[in-house]
Amino acid sequence: MSINVTMIGQLIAFAIFVWFTKAFVWPPLAQAMREREQRIADGLAASERGAEELEKARADYEQTMAEARQKASEILAQANKRSNEMIEEAREEARREGERLVEQARSEINQELARARQSLREEVAGIAAAGAGRILKREIDAGTHKSLIEDLVAEI
Amino acid sequence: MSANSENPVTGYIDHHLTNFEVGEGFWALHVDTLITSFVLGILFAGTFWLAARKATAGVPGSWQNFVEMVLEFIDGLVKESFHAKSNLIAPLALTIFIWVFLMNFMDLVPIDWLPTLAYALGFEYFKVVPPTNMNTTFGLSIGVFLLIIFYSLKFKGGLGYLKELLGHPFGLWFFPANLALNIIETLAKPISLSLRLFGNLYAAELIFVLLATMTLGVTAPELFSSAGNIAMFVGQVFLTTLWAIFHILVVPLQAFIFMILTIIYLSMASETDH
Predict the structure, then answer these.
(1) How far apart are CA B186 and CA B201, in angstroms?
(2) Phi/psi zone of residue B235: left (φ > 0), alpha (ψ -120 to 50 degrees), beta?
């Protein structure tokens, strides 16, 4: 149980092990732990940032969607209005065209009627003149009795 | 060992408490203590170095995980009590904790295994538990003592340390009393450190030895031949188990106390404002 040089040996061994731990064991492990800590902190920060960005993107998306929806409904309303207008215009035009056609037909009928009346008159005058000639047994000179015939035609 | 022939029990106890000594007087070496503590120190340094060499900041393996756990535990203790800047304290505390723990742990190895093995290898005596040798505990505590002096000088300066030794706690006029008190206080630190560890482990080892003598010299066929022998055997197994379970607490506790007191002594040495 005596103290002897073993104590010095133990002291030296102690010093060697402390030196070894200080030089080769502690620093790499502490470094690795610090790095991992940093990495975890970075990861947490990144995930937080990601969540924020997601929130922002969602808000953007919702706003864009709302705008698009509104624009679509505007366009739809405009298109409806325009189609109504077009239908109205077409109806109006058709009506005018119809009226024009009716008018044209009517004037054509009138012209035709006038023309028919005229030719009928002339024919009747001819027939009358022929009839009168035959009655008088002589030729009525168309030239001399022209005024007479015209009077007759006007009378019919 | 003259007692060996007279009384087998005393002989057994003596045998277990004797170091394998080479040399004479102060220059004698306790080879068993040196070998055991050095092998355990290499075991500590080697296994921890293995973790440190492959240390990764990514997912750690189970060994690295364990080592990191120990490191973090010790780092927390050091940061709590040691406020000056030094990157020696934490590795020092780690070395003390694990090394002393391993050396204490040798107490839990069944008492005759290693001495018998050593005897087969030619060592007549082999005292297995290094902290039951005062050379070990004083070797450690003198290392701590030197560090206390070094830190006192480093952080307070030669003059500051001298002023503290002379002028504390009673004021400068009472410097002889102050100096005496401070010298006693400073010397008490390594002495109490080493004697506490030595005393605890020596007592524990002695009780293991005494329990082992309960059936000393009884051969296996004799063991169950009488009621007395059976009672002794059952009692021995029961008591040894109980003491070993208790010792599971003592082994890390003594290592922890040695470490934490070292940290506290060094933090006291490095504190500049009193």
Answers:
(1) 24
(2) alpha
**Do B216 and B9 contact (CB within 8 A), yes or no?**
yes
Per residue in B147-200, pLDDT tens?
999 999 999 888 888 888 888 788 788 888 889 999 999 999 999 999 999 999
Distance of alpha carbon B185 from alpha carbon B195, whole angstroms: 15
Interface probe with B: pick from A29, A37, A38, A39, most Cβ of B within 10 Å: A29
State the nearest Cα–Cα gap between A45 and chain B, in angstroms.
18
Task: From chain A, pick out residues whose CB is under 8 angstroms from the CB of B27.
Answer: 4-5
Measured between beta carbons, the chain A residues lying within 8 angstroms of B64 are 29, 32
What pTM was estimated for this model as a whole?
A: 0.75
Distance CA B99, CA A17 (A): 9
Catalytically active residues of B are 192, 196, 200
Give the span between the Cα atoms of B245 and A57, in whole angstroms. Answer: 62
Interatomic CA distance for residues B209 and B243, integer angstroms: 11
Report the C-alpha dihedral over residues B55, B61, B67, B71, rounded to 10 degrees: 60
Q: Which two tokens stand for residue B202?
A: 């020596």
B88 chain-A contacts, CB cut-off 8 A:
18, 22
Rg of chain A over CA atoms, in angstroms?
61
What lies within 8 Å, CB to CB, of B137 at 6+ separation is: B131, B193, B194, B195, B197, B198
> Coil, strand or helix: which one is B250?
helix
- Cα of B241 to nearest chain A Cα, Å: 28
Instruction: Name the residue among B69, B74, B45, B70 with its Cα closest to residue B259.
Output: B74
Residue B4, C-beta contacts closer than 8 angstroms, at least 6 positions apart: B11, B14, B15
CB contact under 8 A, A5 and B26: yes
Segment A7-43, tens digit of pLDDT: 999 999 999 999 999 999 999 999 999 999 999 999 9
Q: Which one of A4, A6, A39 would you mutate to disrupt binding with B, by most B Cβ within 10 Å of its Cβ?
A: A6
Q: Write b or e for each residue in B92-109: b if 16 or more Cβ atoms lie within 10 A of its Cβ, otherwise e.
A: bbbbbbbbbbbbbbbbbe
Q: Which of B96, B152, B109 lies closest to A22, judged by CA?
A: B96
- In this structure, are residues B133 and B19 in contact, taking their beta carbons and an 8 Å threshold? yes
Question: How high is the ipTM of this complex?
Answer: 0.88
